[in-house]
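It is worth pausing here to work through a concrete case rather than discussing structure prediction in the abstract. The textbook approach is simple: state the sequence, then state the predicted structure, then interpret. We follow exactly that order.
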Amino acid sequence: MSVSTERHVTWRRPEVAPSLLARLFDSKPFLIAICLLPAVGLLLVFLTYPLGLGIWLAFTDTHVGRGGYFVGFENFESLWYDRVFWGAVFYTVFYTGVATVLKFGLGLWLALLLNENLPFKSLLRAIILLPWIVPTVLSAIAFWWMYDAQFSIISYVLVDVLGWRETYIDFLGTPWHARWSLIAANVWRGIPFVAISLLAGLQTISPSLYEAALLDGASSWQRFTRITAPLLMPILAVVLTFSVLFTFTDFQLVYAITRGGPINSTHLMATLAFQRGIPGGQLGEGAAIAVSMIPFLILATMFSYFALARRKWQQGGDDE
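Step two, the predicted structure:
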């Protein structure tokens, strides 16, 4: 009797160590770096390099058509005694503060109004966006005609139609008239951004909260201060930050309407930096004015972050 045995042989692929490329693509930090590389490259080319070049030019005596030499803080020392520069600093802060307060007051009022059940609500929201959609230069030209000393429609209505005045208003011929006229134009353009952004925040608040407050007998003001304002604070912080930055660095509207006049009374720091650096040819001095804007922008951003975007405020609580 013969016994036959069968031997089963299992074939296995010989283990091969993964290549360096395979190990790299299996590495999470490497994949993160690869994905971020295009964004970092774009930031370096279009943000970091221009900013670094501007800071370097602020410490040189570079002029248009010729290179400059490092002069240290000489440009900033000359700005310290420059009355036009300090006038631009004053008007920039004044312009930003007044325009931001008006935009947020009117924008919040419009947002609350559009949050109600109104007829043609979608159409009204689209119409309110028009000032924001219209190109800045086109709206500046329209305001320039509205503020014209001879053909102003505002003066025509006040003098010829209503008879409230005897003479036309020189909107752009006197310093304070021109300053307030620019603020009015900026507010007109900025209200839609604030209103639509705050309206989006209002849409996220649950109606059940207001219903519960009504059952408890809360007034309209109590519902606003106890429900709307705390829950709207995160959106308010972001919108306020962007509004301050956009207003502080405004250039097109001011330059298209007044070009800094009359007698340099409506210069913002951005328009003065452009005038000194490009038409004036003093690139170093223009860059120094632009660099002087950075501390103000940092302060505005820090205030918005630490004073308005704190986590307990975002949750509707009180800060300790």
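Step three, interpretation. Residues 83-114 form the longest helix (32 residues). The radius of gyration is 30 Å.
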